[in-house]
Amino acid sequence: MPRFRNLSSHEVRQKSSAMDLVTDADEAAERMIAKGLGQIFPHAVLIGEEATEHDPSLLTRLADAELAFLIDPVDGTKNFASGLPLFGVMVAAIVRGEVVAGWIHDPIGNDTAMALRGEGAWIEHPDGRRDDLRVASSVAIGDMSGCASWHHMRGPMRSTVTANLAGFGAVACYRCAAHEYRMAAAGHCHFLVHSKLMPWDHAAGWLLHREAGGYSACFDGSPYQPKLHEGGIICAPDAESWRTIRERLIGPT
Question: Residues 62, 86: contact at Cβ < 8 Å?
Answer without folding.
Answer: no
